[in-house]
Design brief:
Strand order of the largest sheet: 1-2-10-7-8-9
Strand content: 15-25%
Radius of gyration: 18 Å
CATH architecture of the largest domain: 3-Layer(aba) Sandwich
Mean pLDDT: 95
Distance between the termini: 40 Å
Number of domains: 2
Length: about 300
Amino acid sequence: MGASLGSALADLVGNTPLIPLTRIAAHVAPVEIYAKAEWFNPSGSGKDRAALNIVRTAIQSGHLTKEKTLLDATSGNMGIAYAMLGAALGYRIRLVIPASVTPERKIILNAYGADMIFTDPMAGSDGAIEKARQLYAQSPDAFFYANQYDNDANWLAHYHGTAEEIWRQTEGRITHFVAALGTGGTFTGTGRRLRELNPKIRLISLQPDSPLNAIEGWKHMPTAIKPQIYDPALADENIEITTEEAHYVARQLAREEGLFVSPSAGGAVAGALSVAERLKEGVIVTILADAGYKYTSERFW
């Protein structure tokens, strides 16, 4: 990617472990549930995959230069991934973020040197998107607007990476893929490739049950600005998850599996369990987007 440290970081993105969930899923046996531990990526979340591909593609195409600042809206993890890459490669990063993100995320972004603009927490990620669009419209020559919600490099990172890893790690045994909707990149990219590898694989998307929720990074698609990369026709089924379910399962994963994960990851496993409880057999894979360390200030613990 043009810098030795950047290349070293790039080599650490992807190839995350696939962890069997045994104790929390004992009641659904012989159905098997596995989860991708995405906090093994260098900035601590699965967003490293998309951020790396977006940045790499933009540099190669000439859209991102040292004279421009990378601009995007984020609820936190994607911003941290951008900030990490920007620090390693020498690019300026400006992020528009809902003010409600956890203080841990703000501290990490500040440590990486990212410029942060905070928006109305009640407007959620859509408010941040609208502000980022406004900033870009005012100064288009000053920014590379990464636009993670509409950028094909996002879902293609998962098409070429996440899906191939899951296929290899399950030795092609996967029968169900369960993942949350945020930008839609993980679900769309992984789902499209898995369906090519085996058209019988069931694709189940997850989203919060309400636009007012505390599952950071998830989108309630019926009321949100819909990402252009989201393909609503791809899912065989969509399941709504409550904030309470996500928090409960996150606590259970820590106490029964030894996995300290985020509310998002808790919600993903809640969805996988709900699918498993309807099956007699199968191999379900879901995504643990990040660990719980950026959420220690939240009271649900």
